[in-house]
Amino acid sequence: MTKFPPSELLNSLPKQFFAALTKKASQFIEQGYDVINLGQGNPDQPTPKHIVAKLQEAAANPLNHKYSPFQGFSYFKQAAVDFYMREYGVSLDPDKEVAILFGGKAGLVEIPQCLLNPGDTILVPDPGYPDYWSGIALAKAEMVTMPLREENHFLPNYQELSSDNLADAKLMFLNYPNNPTGAVATKEFFEETVKLANDHNICIVHDFAYGAIGFDGIKPLSFLQAKGAKNIGVEIYTLSKTYNMAGWRVAFAVGNESIISSIELLQDHLYVSLFGAVQEAAAEALTGPQECVRELTRLYEQRRNVLIDGLKAIGWEVTAPKGSFFAWLKVPKGYTSEEFSTILLEQAHIMVAPGIGFGSFGEGFVRVGLLSSEERLIEAVSRIRSLQIV
Question: In terms of C-beta density within 10 A (0-12 exposed, 13-18 middle, 19 or more buried), how is residue 203 classed?
Fold first, then answer.
């Protein structure tokens, strides 16, 4: 068989971090070990029943068996507008300020290709979601990292950016509640970001994937709640986490109309549109009963408490996250993040994500997902205690 080599572009893409992580854990599972998987971000709860029922009803409608409009149905865009007004008091134009996405990841990978030319500079959080790097590589852009440090509550310190970096930057990624640190942003931080963006003509892309998940009475802020934010950026909201619809691949971007127009232009060349039944179900999720969201947040908060309290009880000095469904835990002294993660997998059969996989400033931490039952989290704590390494 003739082997056709991949393009230089494909060879330039970063290593898919989560694929490698999953493969490693799968090898132990195949050998018969009971692996507690705390390393991934795949929601473990089912999609709420009323959303599934809407999909089933809509799937039977022959109108949804045809191609959907290229840029999506207007009712879905209106549902996103209604959602943002209800949840955040943000006013949006459904025709100009909403783009339907094939999952949040698609939008994050597409935007650098929409706005950057080869060699352009983008500011990226470190540690941060590794798939940001994929879109940057596809755009052949240059990445400048913004360190997220514990002493600054895992918010970037813009004073650390050089005048050259600020002058060159065309785009910035932010993400709060944050993956992997679990940090949340403040109103003051978002206001500072808007000022910086205006001063240096930088487009802000806020990844709001965990927007519904805040703990201890905290309701995470939308970036668009900051005065002037809509003029200089967009926010990407996915239904994956809020409504346990990860496999449905449905999300949307909202904000600056020129960015929205660029996203839709690129997608016109890549896709037709989402299956109409998925769009109907997504609209139902956004505008229908929301108690399921509140119940889900309570579930994650209870799991967080069980995990953090358990780890503290065995002597591991850890800090509870304020949002997202991840805990960002300091590695015990004497280990790198990869060494500690390997010990947990090989000796305790617990998979966590080493911090170095999220950037150089992730070294010294591991990311632990709150996506297993309380019983499994308690079992994980017990296995870690038996290693006597914390």
Answer: buried
Mean pLDDT for the chain? 96
Which pairing describes strands 121-126 and 142-147: parallel, antiparallel, or unpaired?
parallel
Find, among 214, 178, 105, the residue nearest to 361 by Cα: 178
Pick the closest to residue 45 from 373, 277, 303, 278 (CA basis): 373
Could you tell me if 103 and 250 are in contact, meaning their C-beta atoms sit under 8 angstroms apart?
yes
Tokens representing residue 41 in the block: 């971000």
DSSP E strands, the chain: 36-37, 98-101, 121-126, 142-147, 169-175, 203-207, 233-238, 251-255, 326-330, 350-351, 353-354, 365-369
Given a cut of 90, whether residue 7 has pLDDT beyond it is: yes
Amino acid, single-letter form, for residue 287: T
Instruction: Say what the pTM is.
Output: 0.96
Mean of pLDDT values over 63-78 = 96
Q: What are phi and psi of 291, to 5 degrees?
A: -60, -30
Q: How far is CA 186 from CA 31, 153, 166, 178, 190, in A?
A: 46, 10, 22, 12, 7
Measured CA to CA in angstroms, residue 141 lies from 262, 274, 338, 376 at distances of 17, 29, 28, 42
Q: Give φ, ψ of 204 to 5 degrees.
A: -105, 130
Q: State what percent of residues in the chain have pLDDT above 70.
A: 100
Band of residue 18 on the pLDDT scale cut at 50, 70, 90? confident
Question: Token pair of 66, please?
Answer: 């045809």
Burial (Cβ within 10 Å: 0-12, 13-18, ≥19) of residue 137: middle
Give yes or no for residue 214 having a pLDDT over 90.
yes
Is the backbone of residue 230 left (phi > 0), alpha (psi -120 to 50) or beta? alpha
| Cα(51)–Cα(98) distance, integer angstroms | 21
Identify the band that residue 107 occupies on the pLDDT scale cut at 50, 70 and 90.
Answer: very high
pLDDT for the residue 350: 96
